[in-house]
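**Reference record**
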Amino acid sequence: MTSTSALKAHDSTLPEFIWDDALIRRYDLSGPRYTSYPTAVEFNQNYPVEEMVKAAARSKASNRPLSLYTHLPFCAHLCYYCACNKVITKKRDKAMPYVERVLKEAAIQSKLFGADRPVTQLHWGGGTPTFLPKDVMEHLMAGYGELFNLQTGDERDYSVEIDPREVDQDTLPTLWNLGFNRISLGVQDVNAEVQKAVNRIQPREMTEAVLNEARRIGFRSINLDLIYGLPYQTPESFAETLEAVIEMSPDRLSVFSYAHLPDRFYPQTRIQGDTLPNPQQKLTILHNTINRLLDAGYEYIGMDHFAKPDDSLSVAQREGRLHRNFQGYTTHSECDLLSLGVSAIGQTDDAYFQNNHDLPSWEAAIDAGQLAITKGVNLTRDDRIRRWVIGQLICQFRLDRHQFAEAWSEDLDRYFADELRRLKPMIQDELIADDGNTLQVQPAGRLLIRAICQIFDLYRKEGASQRFSRII
C-alpha cells in the first residue's frame, strides 16, 4: 500500500479524499461517533422522568416536525458480531405483546409531544424489524396512525432495517403499503466462509432478490450495510464482496468497522481472535474500499457512509443541510426525535433521554402506565453550541464563522480560542484549512473527522477516551 493516495471528486479538481499512512498513525486514536453531543457516556444514569416530560413540553411548544423511531429487538438468529440490544427467539408470538406495549408507550408520548405534529421521518430498527409477522406490522402502524400525524407525501423519509433472511413474498409489499419508502439491507459480507464464521448464512442471490423486488415496488435510497474486520476477511476477499455489491448498485452504502469486544458483548466470544484480519489488513481493506467506491461513482459522505451523487444524502451535503442523529446521517435536521421501545433514545433541541435497556424492566414500567426513561441529559447552551459546531464539521466538512455568529450571536475565535489553538497542528498537517472565514476539512482530514470534532468536545478535553472505538 502506498503511503499517500488521492482520488478526484466527480465535479472538482480537488481530490475528494487523501489517504496518508503517517497521519492515520498519528491521529487514529479512540473517539466518539457523534451521533449525539454530549455523547451517551455523559448521560445521567438516574435522569428524572420529570425532566423528560418538561423537555417534551418545550418540544411541543416549538411545533417542530417529528422523527419517530421504534426499537424492535427480536431476532430469529444470533449473528456473532452483533453488539445491538436484542432478544434471540424463534417464537413469533412474542412480537404482538411487545408491540402492544410500544403502542401504550406511544400513547403517553403522543400526548406529551403533541399528536398533530407532522411525522416527516420514521424508522424501525432492531433487532430485526422483519421478525414481526405481517399482522403485527399492520397493527403497529395502524396504532401509530391513530396516535400521530403520519405523512404520505414524497418528502417523507420512512425507513426500515431488513434482514433478507427474514423476508417472504408479503414482506416488502406490506411495508410499502404501510407507508415505508426506504429500506436498509443487512449484508455484512457475501463470502461464504465469513458468513459461516459469524453465523449469518445469506447467499448473494437472496440479497439480490430482495433488492430487485424493492426497486420494482418503488423503494428509493436503498442502503446496504457491510462490515469489515470480520473473521477470515482479507483485502482480496473483501474486494470480491465489494465488486458483488457494486454490481447490485445500491443508492447508499454503510461500511462499518467491526470492533471485537468479547468482554462487553457475549455473542462475540464465539469469534476466535486469531481468525480476524490484523490491524494493517483492516486498514488496507478500508483504504481499498474507499478508493473502489469513489472510483465506482459513490460520494464519501463521511464516517462509514457512501451515496450516489444524486441521492438525497449527497445533495443535502452539497447544499450544507446534512444532519446526524442516532440513526446516522439524515436530511431531516429540523425534527425532534421521539423514540419508542426498549433502550430507544429520544432527542429534543435541549435534551436526550433513553429507555431502560432491560426488557423486563421496560415492560414493567409500561405495564404500570409509566414512561421507562432511565438515562438522559439536559443540554446547556454551551452543549448546544458545541453540538452545532461538531454537526457542521462531521456533516458539511466545514465551519463558517459568519454562519456561527448568525446562529449563536458569538464570535467563533473568541468562544473557541483554546480549541483553535489546539487545532493548529491539524492545520499544519493539512487535515483542515483556515482562511479566516471558514474552517474547511481537507481531503486528508475527511477520514479523521472524528479526531477533528474531538477538539471541540469539552468532555474529551483531556484527550481520547478508551471508552470509544478507534477512529478508523
